[in-house]
Specification:
Radius of gyration: 32 Å
Largest sheet: 6 strands, mixed, barrel
Distance between the termini: 29 Å
Number of strands: 10
Strand content: 15-25%
Order of helices and strands: HHEHEEHEEHEEHEHEHEHHHHHHH
Strand order of the largest sheet: 2-3-8-5-7-6
């Protein structure tokens, strides 16, 4: 491709008689760059949101849960010890999950009450690092302390030190009938993890207090496991089924939150397709650029043909010219998109100060900053798709150029 490459580069660099062709060529190049940069930034932000939400959800939920298939789990210590022998399991903690009603003065709210051991819970969940008042270690057996989510505490209008009444669904059978079980708990802490589901509907008590309140004896609802690699949760769950055996039910986070993460992934894919149309439109502007170029260079093509150039050589010349537009546009987009994605935490606050706006208000959104997670695979995929579209766009004009007959092209010259 010696002389074809030289002529193709010369056509790209040369000052053309028709400046409109140069303008369309530059527009195509910048359009490809803008589309590629937008794709990289948007996918990085979507990855950032996905990572942030996953961290917040798994900061409260567990990577893997082992529970009794037909009710409470007896002998949880042996189950936790056996599960901890798996190389991926880094921590295990027992828990009790139950429904209850919380009341304070005239306010009433339903809640999930989770019994925990504070010293082991810190190893499998991050609630302790999201405390906005009090400490998780303030939960002591027999003292009936309770830690509430911030939204739940706001709905009940309680603060640290107040006493709330917990109404358990298990009733007391008396000669007068079945009476609900009531117990006063003192609020010893508040947490805010940034997920409304947990902040508005989760209350934590000590494991022994929960066992006593819900009449579970020494049993628990299950054991929560933390893994070294959270993406290996499904494989670890399968391994534990064979390893633990018995009458157990084992679930992982990809199952318990499957719909949520699937919705986020679908949204990311849809955004990719929509923004890819920008790149496609810009790439196919190369078609109009090369068609006009072929028309402008008809005499040159005829002269090359009379000097012995083959139709394939003519086709290569214009493929090189169109591909060069795509390559330069893609490089501009990749560099610009990567730089913007890596510095979005600086660019967005600057734009907010410049225009006196706030894109993600703290009063409305729990994630008030745009997170970014630039992934090499996304960048390579976007660049490859852009280059392929640009190359495909060159085929038809190049084929037309190769079909030009020298005699017809030079008849009126």
């Amino acid at each position: 491709m010696g002389y074809e490459l030289l002529i193709g580069l010369r056509y790209t660099r040369a000052k053309r008689r028709n400046h409109f062709i140069s303008f369309i060529s530059m527009t195509s190049m910048m359009g490809i760059g803008l589309g590629v940069a937008a794709l990289i930034v948007v996918l990085s932000v979507m990855n950032g949101f996905q990572k942030e939400l996953r961290a917040r959800i798994l900061g409260v939920a567990s990577h893997v849960q082992v529970s009794g298939s037909a009710g409470p789990l007896e002998g949880w210590a042996a189950v936790a010890q056996q599960a901890a022998t798996h190389p991926q399991v880094v921590a295990a903690a027992p828990y009790i999950n139950a429904q209850a009603m919380l009341t304070f003065q005239s306010a009433v709210r339903g809640s999930v009450v989770r019994g925990i051991l504070p010293e082991t819970e810190a190893k499998v969940a991050d609630i302790g690092s999201h405390m906005i008042a009090g400490r998780l270690q303030s939960l002591a057996p027999g003292e009936f302390g309770i830690v509430l989510g911030s939204e739940l505490a706001r709905a009940l209008a309680v603060a640290v030190g107040d006493r709330v009444t917990l109404i358990a669904p298990q009733g007391l059978v008396t000669p007068a009938g079945v009476l609900p079980r009531l117990k006063q708990f003192r609020v010893v802490g508040l947490f805010e993890v940034g997920m409304f589901e947990y902040d508005s509907g989760l209350a934590l008590v000590h494991l022994e207090d929960a066992q006593r309140l819900f009449q579970m004896g020494t049993a628990v609802s299950g054991v929560r496991l933390k893994l070294a690699d959270l993406f290996a949760a499904r494989e670890v769950a399968r391994d534990l089924v064979a390893q633990l055996g018995g009458n157990l039910f084992i679930s992982d986070w990809t199952r318990s939150h499957a719909n949520f993460f699937r919705a986020v992934q679908i949204e990311k894919n849809v955004m990719f397709i929509i923004l890819l149309l920008i790149v496609a439109v810009a790439a196919f502007n190369i078609v109009s650029t090369l068609v006009m170029m072929v028309t402008d260079k008809r005499p040159d093509i005829a002269i090359l043909r009379t000097l012995g150039a083959t139709p394939a050589s003519i086709m290569k010349i214009f493929i090189i010219q169109g591909a060069l537009i795509g390559v330069i546009g893609t490089l501009i987009g990749v560099v610009g998109g990567v730089l913007l994605a890596l510095n979005i935490d600086v660019v967005v606050p600057f734009l907010e100060r410049l225009f006196s706006v706030q894109f993600l208000s703290r009063e409305v959104y729990y994630i008030s900053e745009l997170p970014s997670d630039l992934q090499r695979g996304d960048v390579l995929m976007i660049a490859a798709v852009s280059l392929v579209l640009s190359l495909v766009a060159t085929l038809y004009p190049s084929w037309r150029a190769s079909r030009i007959q020298p005699a017809e092209a030079l008849r009126y010259e």
